[in-house]
Amino acid sequence: MSVVIRAALPADLTVIGRLGALLVRTHHDFDPKRFIAATPHTERGYASYLGDQLEEKGVVVLVAERDGAVIGYTYAGAEGFDYMSLRGPAGVLYDIVVDPEHRGHGVGRMLLDATVAALQERGVPRVVLSTAERNEVAQRLFDRAGFRRTMIEMTRELKDGGP
Fold this sequence. Notes:
Elements (H helix, E strand, L loop, with lengths): L2 E5 L5 H18 L11 H12 L5 E8 L2 E11 L10 E9 L8 H15 L5 E3 L6 H9 L19
Helix pairs in contact: 1-2
């Protein structure tokens, strides 16, 4: 079964919303103090938000499709200088997710490579991303694709009274 990577369409948004909610749940499971929890509205909200992004200049939303079914997506954008991040212009990969039933067959790498290529076409000099500390599978994918570690996010919960 072959996988096709293509631009997302409005008809894909229901599945993208489901996959986005999966991304939210996965991150919350990694660290519930750091990441928000999914709600009954997450799928619809995610689909609506990314639906608005489909027409934005500089935004890339791609899907992986197998046998007519969307099995993964990426969401990325070309950004200018970001002084908060001390970073010059870059493509930023915001989301990458593959349906768990289709993982381990190179779909994530196909989506990643296509997203990097689409960002490169938009003239960005680099691509940056963030990944959860506990998401070792994603980190291996990014390492194999030539990404290098440049930042470490640290969180301190203030409600717990600090150190």
